[in-house]
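User: Please predict the structure of the protein below. I'd like the answer in structure-token form so I can feed it into my own downstream comparison script.

Assistant: Understood. Taking the following sequence of 698 residues as input:
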Amino acid sequence: MAEPAAPATSSASKPLSAPQKALHKLGLKRDIDLALHLPLRYEDETRIVQLRDVRNGELVQIEGTVTHSEVQYRGRRQLLVTLDDGTDTCTLRFFSFYPSHQKTLAVGAVVRARGEIRGGFAGYTLLHPAFKLAGGELPTALTPVYPTSAQLPQAYLRKAVVGALKRADLHETLPPPLLAGLQRTARVSPTLREALQVLHHPGPEASLAALEDRSHPAWQRLKAEELLAQQLSQALAKRERDALNAPQLPLRRGGLHEQLLATLPFALTAAQRRVGEEIALDLARRVPMHRLLQGDVGSGKTVVAALAATIAIDAGWQCALMAPTEILAAQHFRKLVGWLEPLLEPLGKRVAWLTGGQKKKQRQAMLDLIASGEAALVVGTHAVIQDQVVFQRLALALIDEQHRFGVAQRLALRGKTGGTLEPHLLMMTATPIPRTLAMSYYADLDVSTIDELPPGRTPIVTKVVSDQRRAEVVERIRSQLDQGRQVYWVCPLIEESEALDLSNATATHAELSQALPGVLVGLLHSRMPPPEKKAVMSLFVGGQMGVLVSTTVIEVGVDVPNASLMVIEHAERFGLSQLHQLRGRVGRGAAASACVLLYSAPEGGRLGETARERLRAMAETHDGFEIARRDLEIRGPGEFLGARQSGAPLLRFADLATDTHLLAWAREAAPLMLERHPALAEQHIARWLGSKAEYLKA
């Protein structure tokens, strides 16, 4: 049951005022939205402090009579007002003021002023204090300060929140048994209404520290309810999908799956075998698989996907693999053609290739193969989900680097079956998902983890180096080239930016070409036409090109075992998981490999704390799961989720780093609530997520 809408003037009868428009722009349309719009901080206007009792640097509210008021022009125009409270005097100093200020602060006026007190030889001073004429009783609660916009004054927003709190339907959606379990887990306010009342208008006795660090029982109640709403929506999405039908794809003895295993030039790791079995069990069921396959860079996810594809093809169905970039899609295509085409040819089947840059005739030929069913496996980019692509019998959709795709794109691929059956969905990521994130934002997915690397992968030495030692790095490159090795040099930008003042890929390419005479130095960036990109990559993969200067288009999927050195320029500009992905492009062969993180501190300054933490983490660990954990601490969940929930909110109140006890309670409570109290569960989701719950279903 949705909450009643906050009263607003109907657009049909009267246009919205500027503050009303500002409310809507902030997403504050329902009474419950306003009730859940919580203060950033609080101001204590509940007591008056006498000047004789104040301490330097303290935030105080004083009350006194104006004994002097004048505008001075010493250096700059300023308003100076002397306030006497009977125990001492204080100067109120304003560098920005209006005639109305002077009128209110006229000699003889009794005024309340609040701000940070500063004491010196010239007496006490308040710089730009908040002030008003004294009168009326002091507030009995702390004054909330809300997140707002220029068009929405605090006074208007405070009044709107007070009204919304009175009108909002805040009936309890937590059944008594679940609430009792929550109270055993944490100290929480007994009701949601009480929690909101405390958070909007805490009494002067409330602990400001507990309110600010969100450990107060009122905060604990809100965070628990928010996490429960998220878990409920995920569980509901999973339940709805489980009610759909998918093709049953049993593993056939002696079929393509066994044939591929027999022809692979390497043995699977124990982790690959384990996740392969989990996927095979899913495919054999009538319920659509919705599984996330996570594994560190180079852990061998592609072969697991190929084995899953053989199961679908053996059962007479088609499979589609979608990758975010043409380079990554081409990498998959080469591997899969090498592994599968010899097995598919006797069956009259093919692997099709589909990208946006294909010529019309070649594209049409691929579309015909897909529509006829001759293409048992289709590999491509976003082109795979375009309207003109019609599958004959699609049973399995594989999505690589799933965080690069939005909800609509995944839904479009799921809609390609053309019938009443839903395809099985396997999403892959080389960015390991931290446990708390898997428990929350990915709660609707089954997660398989490849937690070991294939044998023969060489460890990568990571060095953090200042840009001032650039010449030494170029010498290191020359040494690697002399040993017959190849090198990546990654830049963060293509064009010069005056704001960021970064070296661009084109300038670096020219610099290295000049510094390394006789060496073929290539340039690769996202704005190059596809044929040029393909030509450059072919030269590098083939070993003719010694150095590849690139933007992050090589972040995923490029596999050149002979490349032994990765230089990342302006490494401080990259996210932690992106740095880890880039580092994974080397160390793929037998040669000792290194990654140089070249950083540039601001002129005369130091790197920011976040950048230092990222570079430190890269130097200290190669474990993708540890990298992911630290990335979650540094950047929050957005880095991992990508476009998974386009338009849906990240957690507003709960913090996955500190609220794991509440998350554990919500995970246990959600299925019980759906089973025993479905109406309350629906009301709870509507209250907290509204229409945004739909984004969690893909």
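That's the full token string. Residues 1-12, 494-502, 643-649, 694-698 have pLDDT under 50 and may be disordered.
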